[in-house]
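User: Predict the complex with pyridoxal-5'-phosphate.
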Amino acid sequence: MTTRNEQLFESAKKHIPGGVNSPVRAFGSVGGTPCFFTKGEGAYVWDADGKKYIDYVGSWGPLILGHAHPKVIDAVIDTAKNGMSFGAPTEAEVTIADVLCEMLPSLEQVRLVSSGTEATMSAIRLARGFTGRDKLIKFEGCYHGHADSLLVKAGSGLLTFGNPSSAGVPAAVAADTIVLPYNDVAALEALFAEQGSEIAAIIVEPIAGNMNMVQPSAQFVAAMRNLTMQHGAVLIYDEVMTGFRVGLQCTQGLHGVTPDLTCLGKVVGGGMPLAAFGGRADIMGYLAPLGPVYQAGTLSGNPVAVAAGLATLAEIRQDGFFAKLSAQTAKLVAGLNELGKDHGLCAQSVGGMFGVYFAEVVPTSFADVMASDRTRFNAFFHAMLDQGIYLAPSAFEAGFVSAAHSDADIDATLAAAKIALSRC
Ligand SMILES: *Cc1c(COP(=O)(O)O)cnc(C)c1O
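Assistant: Here is the predicted structure with pyridoxal-5'-phosphate placed in the model:
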């Protein structure tokens, strides 16, 4: 018998390429039929067949308060009643810019955009305009949205000049992107020694969350800051995922680093299309209309999206919010490590973000992540899904706990994991 999810997926494929509007949603790497969701509330989502799940995806990170948080929903509805968009300045944009600069000391100025992709793309253009240089360093396994110059992965070897990893990206564009291994200080030093005067910027996920979850070493973090400073390059922290997810001052607060530019998204919009980039005022001053670097958007700073963002930020700034979220996430991870120790599974978390790996030790590089057991992950994923636990449908994505996940939800998840591990 076909389920409603299966029927919808079949229908979707008629007029939507692959049936989805973003590739990972198609369940391509885990197999099976994607869930079409009809409703979310707190820690739960319901699919088109009426099945309820405890959700650890949270729309890929934004929903730190859980689904349909009443204060966020009210802010959206109240704001929408006064009009959806003006394409002109509004007071709420001023407020959120003030709030972001107050929360994150590295931000002197900030500009709003509508997606993480726009934030990183614009930050890179700005870094190139500011430095007058073209070359960009990114790291293997880091995802920074789908702008052309960022769709480049590493080949083999210590230092690889970019080859596009997507069709349709001109080789000339990719050629200015240099890909280095994450956490490899020697490779970074060697590159700067050779080409330091040509490097416009480093862009990095300061805790990587798009190759499952990989944390940087203290030496790597320090090397990125010191080398960019010495060579006049711009250090761009892509905190689209980690921003207000790992802590109130994002990764930069945890690591004590002041990047030159920061990209934000996901949590900052509370589930609406809102993202931002900002940082040093002397660099931000290169943006139009003040300076020569063009950047714009019809819906940038959209009032309804800003309202959702402000309501979300107000909640996470409440006393004890992150301590509680971090403890709840750590509880899940401790339980998984306990269950997993005889099954070749391990896990880690920072703030409300976690990684689960079918590996003996927590990975510290893209190569480590690639060496983890993907076949077992896929079996685990489906065994969890069957039991009503919705994990990211890929071994290469981080997971998220929200403030709505209760002790009972964590306990139920661990009980399901115990059964799932016995099956895979
Ligand atoms: C999600 C993400 C992006 C892209 O954001 P979109 O809103 O999907 O365009 C960029 N960088 C990082 C680190 C991300 O996690």
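The chain is about 40% helix and 15% strand.
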